[in-house]
UniProtKB/TrEMBL annotation, chains A, B:
It comes from Paralimibaculum aggregatum. Transmembrane segments: none annotated. Keywords: DNA-binding, Transcription, Transcription regulation. It comes from the Bacteria. Residues 6-66 form the HTH tetR-type domain. PANTHER family: HTH-TYPE TRANSCRIPTIONAL REGULATOR BETI (PTHR30055:SF234), HTH-TYPE TRANSCRIPTIONAL REGULATOR RUTR (PTHR30055). InterPro entries: Homeodomain-like_sf, HTH-type_TetR-like_transc_reg, HTH_TetR, Tet_transcr_reg_TetR-rel_C_sf. This is TetR/AcrR family transcriptional regulator. Residues 29-48 bind DNA.
DNA sequence: CCGCTTATTTGACACCGTGTAAATTGTCAC
DNA sequence: GTGACAATTTACACGGTGTCAAATAAGCGG
């Protein structure tokens, strides 16, 4: 698999990324990626044994370049649970459009490939953990909407913030990113937040 | 394509249905369907020229057997917009688990096949129309939550009621169908319903 | 310049799933 | 029987993934 920091390897990752994130990135073949990277198809297999491992590497590459960790961690700095909720929704909701193409491909491949499925589930777990942190902070503040456990609220919030919902609202319904953030932020507050005491 | 009411045709449809709705119905091939129907692979192609047309026929078959139209239309009988909303959420939310496997396959195929995509979009349009009817009734009653147009509310409700959210909450998070209906019903009310006047 | 190593290319091929085609058997109606 | 039809068997074309082996560059120490 050659060494980690190979120039060709990086070119392949960037080419795959660009193709997947392109407007019509529905059917990206290994040969497409090779051609876009200016490399032979076999060179791709030289660096990534399977299509699944390539896609997983692309998501890691994108995360590293975009700095997801730092952006999502920022929501942890907020003081109140309410502020945490808003910050996390804004951070993740704002991140989705930047990784949508790659995420889409990974989800699709996950239906048949175990490695891709595991990679996407890891992603989901990270999101869920962010949701959990916000919900737990709300509960600590006594501001979690009644009638639901912390677990249930976490599940529901992670569903609200799913990539599929973003895709449906912005792609199918034609919402702008700004409208999406506003309405989903409001929905999350309605579902999670109890009215202020007193 | 043989005549409509052929016995073999029905057997193929039932076999495909059963396979798609099975717990591990992720990878259903034409040969699987043929074997399950007790028929040669070519006999399947004799009745359904492509995999996409077979899947589309299966969804129609399921709809006919389950009587989806009647069940969704029942929500129209409700008097108030509020009752309409509850009835529609219960009707569609209760229908999802019965068609989940077929819907899943149709969505997946739609990523590459135009016919399958069109069929699923038709389905989406029907759901959206049900959402629109409920939201319009709410607006007529002056009970639509402020700060959103009828169109936006319809979009949001159709997103909340998406198959993906059902799949995430019940399959990934392990919610029971009963819990799903209760929490999603509550979420829909929070998002759509203004507090009663006076 | 030689020989060694490593990255890449080229071309061929196996596998699998979809879809097509042709020849064959069985079964009814008339 | 003859004709029409349903279904079977066998074979093959195509596209996409993944494998393999041999040929070609490019780097570097001697």
């Amino acid at each position: 698999m050659s060494r980690e920091g190979s120039e060709t390897r990086r070119r392949i990752l960037d080419a795959a990324w660009e193709l997947l994130e392109a407007p019509e990135g529905g059917e990206v073949r290994m040969s497409d990626i090779a051609r876009a990277a200016g490399v032979s198809r076999q060179a791709v297999y030289l660096h990534f044994p399977t299509r699944a491992e390539l896609l997983v590497a692309v998501t890691r590459h994108v995360d590293a370049v975009k700095g997801v960790d730092a952006r999502l961690a920022a929501s942890r700095a907020a003081g109140s649970g309410e502020a945490r909720l808003d910050a996390f929704v804004a951070a993740w909701g704002g991140y989705i459009p930047e990784i949508h193409g790659v995420a889409r491909a990974l989800i699709a491949l996950g239906r048949t490939d175990a490695a891709a499925r595991a990679a996407w589930e890891g992603r989901l777990a990270a999101i869920r953990e962010g949701c959990h942190a916000a919900v737990a902070a709300l509960a600590r503040d006594g501001r979690l909407a009644p009638g639901q456990s912390v677990e249930e609220a976490t599940d529901l919030l992670s569903a609200i913030l799913s990539v599929h919902n973003w895709e449906h609202l912005t792609r199918v319904c034609g919402w702008s990113q700004e409208l999406y953030l506003r309405r989903i932020g409001a929905l999350a507050r309605q579902a999670m937040l109890a009215p202020p005491p007193g």
